[in-house]
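Entry for the shared binder. Reason: the reviewer on the internal report wants the predicted structure included alongside the sequence.
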Amino acid sequence: MSTMDNELEELRKRRLAELQQQQQMQQPDPQAAYQQEQAKAEMDAQKQAILRQILTPEARERLNTLKMSRAAVGEQLEMQLISLAQSGRLQSKIDDAQLKGLLMKMQPKKRKTSITRV
């Protein structure tokens, strides 16, 4: 019976080691998470610096408001503005009216539906 106890104990040890290994693999590496967070913060800082250069304060305020209400559209507009700036297609700062125009171009045309009774 001692050989069976030894085998059972050996199986328990192996299973415990497997569980510990799985648990370690599921937990993110704190150093990698920190580096990823640092890279994201640096990229955000670069984006904000570019936007400060190409937008007037009113346009920047409108963009921030848009990002709070509709994050996806705000991010898309930011990327479009940054790509325009990096490609050199902007001659001057974008003001609030120009930003509104870009937003209107980005939005799909709305169809009007009317119901008529016969």
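Summary line for the report: The chain has a mean pLDDT of 85.
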